[in-house]
Design goal:
Chain A is built from ten helices and no strands. Chain A is mainly alpha-helical and about 210 residues long. By secondary structure, chain B is α/β, with parallel strands linked by helices. The chains are: A mainly alpha (about 210), B alpha/beta (about 240). Chain A: Its main location: membrane.
Chain lengths: ~210, ~240
Amino acid sequence: MQFSILTDYFGTYMEGFRGTILSSLLALAGSFLLGTLIAVFRISTARGLRWFGTGYVEFIRNIPLLLVVYIFYYGPSAFGLSLDGFTAGTIGLTVYTSAFIAEAIRAGIAAVPKGQTEAARSSGLTYVQAMIHVVLPQAIKLVIPPLGNQFINLIKNSSVLTIVAGLDLMYFADIVNSDTFRTFDTYVFVALFYLVLTLPLSYVMRVWERRLQR
Amino acid sequence: MIDFHKVEKHYGHFHVLKSIDLHVDEGEVVVVVGPSGSGKSTMLRCINRLETITSGGLTVNGVAVNDKKTDINKVRRDIGMVFQHFNLYPHKKVIDNITLAPVKVLGVSKTEAEKTAMYYLEKVGIADKAQAYPSQLSGGQQQRVAIARGLAMKPKIMLFDEPTSALDPEMVGEVLDVMRTLAKEGMTMVVVTHEMGFAREVADRVIFMDQGQIVEEAAPEQFFASPREERTRTFLSRVLSH
């Protein structure tokens, strides 16, 4: 093990680490909002929205992540546009994760007693207001453990950015590797960087879950 | 104020409501009794369209509840509802349970809504629990909060769907007391209940339902002393014998 790689290339690693953090945070917030919206579509009484939600989830979660990222990386060029690797990768990651989050939140919504919606609606709240103020806050509480899993997956999945030159941790690790030819050592340090992100997240999720059980 | 005209409701092949004709006047307290599954709750829930009707006419304050053009949220503002299982929002404090609808639906300011909420909490006798969460309250207290929540919208009508059925016996009284006061103040109320004592004492009119029909409708003295229908007599002999 050559620890000098870590110290010599610390700046390079950190640049990738920042990219991974930024992409993960954006995709985390984005997929949470998008997933919640899709979950609400899936249980909507409006048939069009329901079909759209179901189609979205079934299409996205049944194709590989890499393919979703390619759609956003190569797709726009068909319309004369172009997205850089970081943007396309982050959007792809957001869209992909949102399908799984939608399923988790849908299960949470289904687990909120029907009386809650009835109480809210009978007081004159609209469907959307009842969702936002009454149902969703309770639904999300119920699905924190599966959401935690999705968020951890998201951070690890962000490594897909490297394939579209997305300036993430893996991308910069490849640079370190081609400089040093110490492949194993280089990537062991990458694993450490990922663990620095994911282990605290697992811990926070566990604490949060325990607190809600009380 | 509330008008059912030949209302029918089917759940698939199940005929839940059969030609319901019912009229409730302003300030009237109508108590609906009958065996489980007789359609009492369903009828009540039609009034604010938690249940839709299959055919017939149903108007509240002159507005056709089931008309597609009717803005149901507007109709519901004027109808408070209290449920068997309270249905308080567990993630919100008592005070926030009560202010949610006035703020979001009526557009009242938060301070104003809190003032109103405290007034009604005072009225139902649990102002000291304003900052508590529903899970910290007893069933009777929760149901009183639910009543305060309904009243905070200053509705013209209050609907009660078996408000004491999920309560421990010693808590039934406190909820009925609140309802009694409300009735005395002239609130228009439709109450589905198994509390015969309440019906006898507070109702202006008692409705007996069985198998989706209104079987009998009478003033409480007459209803309990000399019911006309055989089915009513059978029902009363069963519920009053113990």
